[in-house]
Amino acid sequence: MDHPDLAQVSLQQVLEALVDPVRRLVVSQLVRAGEDLSCGTFEAPVSLSTLTHHFNVLREAGVIRQYYVGTAKMNTLRKDEMEQRFPGLLSAVIAASAAEAKEA
Q1: Which among 24, 39, 54, 90 is least surrounded, fewest beta carbons within 10 Å?
Q2: How many CB atoms lie within 10 A of CB 37?
Q3: Kind and range of the H or E element at 65?
């Protein structure tokens, strides 16, 4: 799978990836898990095929990295790399999403 060099990723692309609530949910679940997760372990209000689209958007924006372990496609958050490229952005989005979830 192709993963972008974050130096080539624009702020606009990352913001567009993170604007969708399902994609923010994926990011939040990765943060809470504290480990890499396979695609089938995410809880989302969409079909698996739609979730695959969301994974692709996140990967193309440099937010996640995907790799295979056997037949399972694993997902990891590129948190450290994102922090270097866009300091504070991912942490702020994660914190805002958590606060919003508590209000709901």
Answers
A1: 39
A2: 20
A3: strand 64-69
Instruction: With CA atoms as reference, report the closest residue to 61 among 90, 39, 36.
Output: 90
- The dihedral through the CA atoms of 12, 14, 15, 21 has a sign that is positive
26 in Cβ contact with 17 (< 8 Å): no
Q: Report the distance separating Cα 99 and Cα 52, nearest Å.
A: 26
State the amino acid at position 86 in one-letter form: F
Q: Is 2 helix (H, G, I), strand (E, B) or coil?
A: coil
* Predicted model pTM: 0.93
DSSP letter for each residue of 15-46:
HHHHTSHHHHHHHHHHHHH-S-EEGGG---SS
